């Protein structure tokens, strides 16, 4: 930890009605607004995967927001797997299948 901040990363799998409701765009906007980098992508089974890295406090805020989701989404679960910060990205993007 330096200057009161710490960096981390996570992979979140979001389940429920999360495809076809602009969930990836929601994740993109929220992550960018929090200064995070990473990706959001649809999974073949109907879930959405969000991988992000940056300041831990911002990641925690993103995880809380993913649990709510955008209007039209019905989030049933958000499984967050924390990881070490590796600086694997510089921006946040949406992956299209």
Low-pLDDT runs = none
The percent range for helix content is: 10-25%
Number of helices: 2
Main sheet attributes: strand count, strand direction, barrel closure: 5 strands, mixed
Radius of gyration: 13 Å
> What is the fold-level CATH name, i.e. the topology?
Alpha-Beta Plaits
* Secondary-structure element series: EHEEHEE
Strand order in the sheet with the most strands: 4-1-3-2-5
At CATH level 2, the architecture is 2-Layer Sandwich
Form type? globular
Count of individual beta strands: 5
The domain tally reads 1
Q: What does the average pLDDT come to?
A: 95
Structural class: alpha+beta
Report what the structure shows.
Helix 1 (about 25-35) runs antiparallel to helix 2. Strand 2 and strand 3 form a beta hairpin. The protein has helices at about 25-35, 55-70, and strands at about 5-15, 35-40, 50-55, 75-85, 90-95. It has one domain: Alpha-Beta Plaits, CATH 3.30.70.100. The protein is globular and about 35 Å long. Helix content is about 25%, strand content about 40%. The protein has two helices and five strands, in the order E-H-E-E-H-E-E. With about 100 residues, it is an alpha+beta fold. Strands 4-1-3-2-5 form a five-stranded mixed β-sheet, with helices on one face.
């Amino acid at each position: 930890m330096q200057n009161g901040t710490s960096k981390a990363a996570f992979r979140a799998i979001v389940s429920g009605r999360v495809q076809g409701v602009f969930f990836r765009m929601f994740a993109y906007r929220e992550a960018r607004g929090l200064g995070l980098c990473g990706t959001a992508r649809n999974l073949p089974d109907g879930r959405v995967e969000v991988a992000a890295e940056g300041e831990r406090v911002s990641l925690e805020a993103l995880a809380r927001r993913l649990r709510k989701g955008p209007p039209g989404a019905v989030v049933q679960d958000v499984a967050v797997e924390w990881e070490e910060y590796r600086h694997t990205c510089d921006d946040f993007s949406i992956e299209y299948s």
